[in-house]
Amino acid sequence: MKGKRSGPIKKVLYGLGVLLGLAVISFLALFLWPFPDDNNPSWSPDGTRIVFNRHDSEIWVVNADGTNQKKLFDGGQCPAWSPDGTKIAFGSASNGKSDIWLMNTDGTGQTKLASDGANPVWSPDGSKIAFSRQSDSSFDIWAMNANGTDDKNLSEGAGWATSPKWSRDGTRIVFLSISGSNGDIWVVKADGSEKRRLTSDHTDNWPAWSPDGRIAFVRGGNIWTMNADGSNQEVLIPLAAQSLAWSSDGSKIAFVTAGLGSGSNIWVVNSDGSNKTKLMK
After folding, report:
1. Which of 48, 98, 242, 262 has its CA 20 to 30 A from that of 35?
2. Which residues lie below 8 Å from residue 222, measured CB to CB, with a gap of 6+?
């Protein structure tokens, strides 16, 4: 009798193991899978150039029409153009952890700004930088002055937080919080008050403010938008996308298509979904 029972039990345990394995694979694919060849686009304030990552750790710049590609730095991630157009902030590994660095837009003058940080983004007036910082038990959104002083945790208690983006008026920051297999979009005031979850029970990612105050994000591979309070969620552009960046005049969105080893993955599309164009052939 004992032998007869062991068969079904083994089958159940095997089935549970398969399900657990699929869940882990799904999580890795959604949040930890290697980036496409080109990724993390960021527009220059005048809309004429885009800085981006290539091969995960090289920082390049290209004209908005895809011409004049130039490598700026080897060993950095998630570059972000300053509002005055003179600096690029980025994360770069140091002693096993990513730190926040600055450089001129031609790649010169690299200077370490702050320790233990990634995903830097400038406030609209250039006075502050928001970024992700990992501690022993969490990953939170922090903000500091643009000279690296007076850093403050803004997202404590909001889960594994990353991908901050400032609102156009500089009063709020939208970010992604990962919990289990879910990715939820949150918003917090720039002083760390009034944290609020805007989406739930989905796998949302890559939030970005539009110039008119809406929030764009990716759900199910499509670009969605919603009001700043989370209402009126709707598909804006039905295409496979990630890593969104809205141009300063609101007319275009740069985004990344999934896939590895296929050359450039950065595309530009009008904000109404028309004229989807691959940036670099």
Report:
1. 48
2. 235, 236, 237, 238, 239, 240, 241
High-pLDDT (> 70) share of the chain, %: 84
Whether 227 contacts 198, CB under 8 Å:
no
pTM exceeding the 0.90 threshold for the entire prediction: no
How many angstroms separate the CA atoms of 85 and 258, rounded? 29
Residues 218 and 254 grouped into a single domain: yes
Q: Are residues 76 and 206 in the same domain?
A: yes
Tokens of 167: 């609102």
**How far does Cα 46 stand from its chain's mean position?**
21
Asked whether residue 22 carries a pLDDT value surpassing 50, the answer given is no
- Residue 217's Cα: distance from chain center in Å? 10
236 and 146 housed in the same domain: yes
Number of domains in the chain: 2
* Residues 83 and 161 placed together within one structural domain of the fold: yes
The pairing of beta strand 266-270 with beta strand 252-256: antiparallel
Q: Which domain holds residue 251?
A: 36-278
Alpha carbon distance, N-terminus to C-terminus of the chain = 66
Shared domain check, 201 and 72: yes
Contacts for 150 with CB less than 8 Å, ≥ 6 apart: 144
263: left (phi over 0), alpha (psi -120 to 50) or beta: left
**Domain check: are 1 and 98 in the same one?**
no
Whether residues 23 and 119 fall in one domain = no
